[in-house]
Design goal:
By secondary structure, the chain is mostly helical. The chain is 74% helix and 0% strand. It is built from 29 helices and no strands.
Length: 688
């Protein structure tokens, strides 16, 4: 199994102070104890510290004692257990992969467990906790193995995050499809996926504890071999360490820890990333913490402090009745997103931005032939999308409808279906154009609005309106989407601009922003009423359901403007995509041009999200395929990419509403299933 490795960083020798290390450990233990005590005093019931103490000493009223024993203490204990398990799992993964961004989140372990439990729920079989842990373990371990295998050796942190985030998007899309198709069987699974340490008694903790203990013992037994890996693969082999077997063993044990935590409390995001990162400065100062057997338990303590601290902070800042509804995992995900953005400005792996593809020159005949074929395919797909669905029509019905002579039934079907087809076509073209612009100006072959968090910001703005102002019209939703996309793009592109949009910084900041937006979206959906929650989930799946011509109008207007600008400034796009110096030598204002193209791409992404929900990977797949077909000249790439994007989304929408009719799957789910393998294929192809 291949893993990502980064160049070792040289640090001053840690101070050999055992007393200092002991003092740090004692301080952390005290902090965790204080947070645990405070956590037991918080809740909706009027049971404070005096009542908790009386309950612990057996002198409390039966009602107060029941609250403390059945709810408060199990919740606090679950927070401790989950934090320790995730903190140690993250520390072990980062040590064995020598990658500071390795964690259960970035390795898609949580997404794999989520899908495995979703599939189990769909079968209708009621599984005990131990069996659920086994199912989650199988899914999480498989996802981690895929990510570590695809990330490749010696390529730094970016590739691991890319592989993990892409697989996470694909697996989550499949799971959300199951949620929409089987709402009764998967009831409560979405809320569980946000992560909550709330418990009803100690049963869950007691059944999970042996699994966690087994994983912890396994990691401690291989700790010496993990320390040897820090010297490098060759040095470790010289010491008699079986490198591959050690890595596989550690990944298995960390997956066991992660799935035990997931089964108990759902995915508590980014604890496995943040806890080891907070330990690293201490390891530089105190030599004892550089050893895995000391560093992992310390990371476990920090993880417990993060989980309990997030729960305490949530209940301190938010009213008690509202805090009960907000999962702890949402808070840790927000903290982790901010942490990842900060780390993105510091982590370096030498992955500079590069031209999207090798220079390809295609003849004019190839371009014309390709365009003609794509136009024919687009016409065929459009006709099929109009005729097929839960009700099948004939071309004559469409002609009569266009002339105003259709019957009531046919008229109703086409009045609802035609706007859906137009929304899919225009959204696909807009996302493809946005991806083409972003990849060109950043010279990053893996950049696209979804991966960079722009689509996530747009989705947050739109969901905010959908859940708080249900009567908001299409233009209002488009405005909310654009506002969210603008904020996220300012964060992503602003922080990545330093250093010339280096691939590592751009992708990591984008991933952090997308994670934060996803956490806020989850909170909005959980807090709103069930009707708005279903509406938002359906919209987030990339569904064109219920679209009308006014909903499509903003997207059509923006797409026309975007296509015109791209056509008029095609030469500037060609020059900007080459390198940083050539445009300047020719007198172009690179910074101003880049800003203009990025603003246009944000506008295209926002209006596409407002019209058709979140549809991922189109902005990645379409430009790549267009360059492979017709070369890199943007006068050819732009129209071909737009045609490909329109065909892809329209086909995905057609499949989603016909294959399992009358049930439907959103186009965004279908494109994620298609785009994830392609994205991973690009990572494998670029490993050389």
């Amino acid at each position: 199994m291949a893993v990502t490795a980064t160049a070792p960083t040289t640090h001053p020798a840690p101070a050999p102070s055992r007393s200092g290390a002991a003092a740090v450990t004692a301080t952390l233990v005290l902090l965790v104890a204080v947070l645990a005590l405070v956590d037991t005093t918080q809740g909706t019931a009027a049971v404070g510290a005096p009542e908790v103490w009386k309950a612990l000493t057996g002198r409390a009223d039966p009602g107060d004692s029941s609250v403390v024993i059945a709810s408060r203490l199990p919740r606090m204990t679950a927070g401790l257990v989950v934090g320790v398990l995730l903190g140690m799992a993250g520390a072990a993964l980062q040590a064995v992969s020598r990658n500071v961004l390795a964690s259960p989140d970035t390795l898609a372990v949580n997404a794999g467990s989520y899908l495995a439990l979703g599939v189990a729920a769909v079968t209708g079989v009621s599984l005990p906790l131990f069996a659920s842990t086994g199912v989650a373990f199988a899914g999480g371990l498989t996802a981690a193995a895929v990510v570590l295998g695809l990330s490749g050796p010696g390529t730094g942190t970016v590739r691991l995050v890319l592989a993990g985030s892409a697989l996470m998007l694909g697996l989550t899309a499949v799971t959300e499809g199951l949620l929409l198709l089987f709402p009764q069987q998967t009831e409560g699974l979405y809320r569980w996926n946000q992560g909550s340490i709330a418990q009803n008694g100690f049963d869950g903790v007691l059944q999970t504890a042996p699994i966690g203990v087994a994983g912890l013992i396994g990691l401690l037994l291989v700790a010496r071999r993990v320390d040897a890996l820090a010297l490098g693969d060759d040095a470790a082999r010289g010491l008699g360490v079986r490198v591959r077997a050690t890595r596989v063993t550690v990944v298995v044990f960390t997956a066991l820890l992660s799935t035990a935590a997931v089964t108990l409390a759902g995915p508590i995001g980014f604890v496995g990333l943040c806890a080891p990162a907070l330990v690293r400065p201490l390891a530089r100062r105190f030599r004892a913490f550089t050893r895995t057997r000391a560093g992992m338990p310390l990371a476990g303590l920090v993880g417990a402090a993060l989980v309990l601290g997030s729960d305490v902070l949530l209940r301190a800042l938010v009213p008690a009745d509202l805090a009960v509804a907000v999962p702890t995992g949402v808070v840790t995900s927000l903290v982790g997103a901010a942490f990842l953005i900060v780390m993105a400005t510091r982590v370096r792996d030498g992955a500079a931005a590069s031209a999207p593809d090798r220079l390809r020159i295609r003849s004019r005949a190839v371009f014309l032939t390709t365009t003609a074929v794509l136009v024919a395919v687009l016409v065929g797909v459009t006709i099929a999308a109009v005729l097929l669905g839960d009700s099948k029509l004939l071309l004559g019905d469409v002609v009569n409808w266009a002339q105003g002579n259709a019957g009531r039934t046919v008229g109703f079907v086409l009045d609802t279906r035609v706007p859906r087809v137009l929304a899919a076509l225009l959204a696909g073209a807009a996302l493809a154009l946005a991806g083409t612009l972003v990849q060109s100006v950043t010279r990053n072959p893996l950049a696209e609005p979804g991966v960079l968090g722009v689509s996530g910001g747009a989705a947050l703005g739109a969901v905010l309106l959908v859940t708080t102002v249900p009567a908001a019209g299409s233009w209002s939703v488009a405005g909310g989407a654009f506002a969210g996309a603008a904020v996220s793009s300012v964060l992503v592109f602003g922080l990545a601009a330093r250093g010339g949009f280096q691939q590592n910084r751009l992708v990591l900041v984008g991933f952090g922003v997308a994670t934060g937006a996803s956490a806020l979206i989850s909170m909005l959906i959980i807090l709103t009423d069930p009707f708005n929650a279903t509406k938002a989930l359906t919209w987030l799946s990339g569904s064109t359901y219920g679209r009308t011509l006014p909903d499509v109008a903003p997207l059509a207007a923006v797409l026309v403007v975007g296509a015109a600008v791209a056509a008029l400034r095609r030469t500037e796009l060609d020059l900007v995509s080459l390198d940083e110096d050539t445009p300047k030598l020719l007198g172009l204002d690179v910074a101003r041009g880049r800003l203009g193209f990025l603003v246009l791409s944000v506008l295209l992404s926002a209006t596409a999200v407002a019209a058709a929900g979140t549809i991922g990977f189109v902005g990645l797949v379409a430009p790549h395929a267009a360059r492979a077909l017709v070369g890199r000249q943007h006068v050819r790439v732009v129209p071909v990419a737009m045609l490909l994007g329109a065909v892809l989304v329209c086909t995905a929408d057609l499949i989603g509403r016909t294959v399992i009719a009358p049930a439907q799957l959103g186009a965004g789910l279908m494109t994620a299933v298609i785009g994830t393998p392609y994205f991973l294929h690009l990572l494998v192809r670029s490993r050389r």
